[in-house]
Amino acid sequence: MGRYLLLERLGAGGMGVVFSAYDPELDRKVAVKLLRLGTARTREGQARLLREAQAMARLQHPNVLAVFDAGTFGDEVFLAMELVEGSTLTQWLKAGRRSWRQVLERFLGAGRGLA
Predict the structure, then answer these.
(1) Structural domains in the chain?
(2) Which of 48, 60, 83, 110 is most buried by its number of CB atoms within 10 A?
(3) In the 8-state DSSP scheme, what is residue 2?
(4) Is residue 75 predicted with pLDDT exceeding 80?
């Protein structure tokens, strides 16, 4: 997809699908988020993804991913960002019993990133 080589699907959410990818220009792995097809073809969907990229690009916080690039490739709208190896919060919760303190710590970290 453009300069990015999509490697594997990592997950999906309300706005789109996230893949691990390789950026040969900078010789690094990144995450590429593709806006859902139904939304990506509208100007509103493209504007929404661009606003998300701009907001994230302005932030520097340990709980917020760095944004490297945003754009379109054909009809696809994408956001290239920092790739963090590991599991999702849902996977972490299902992997075993967690104390309420462990769960609280994870959710507080997520909340700090959102704030």
Answers:
(1) 5-84 (3.30.200.20), 85-115 (no CATH)
(2) 83
(3) T
(4) no
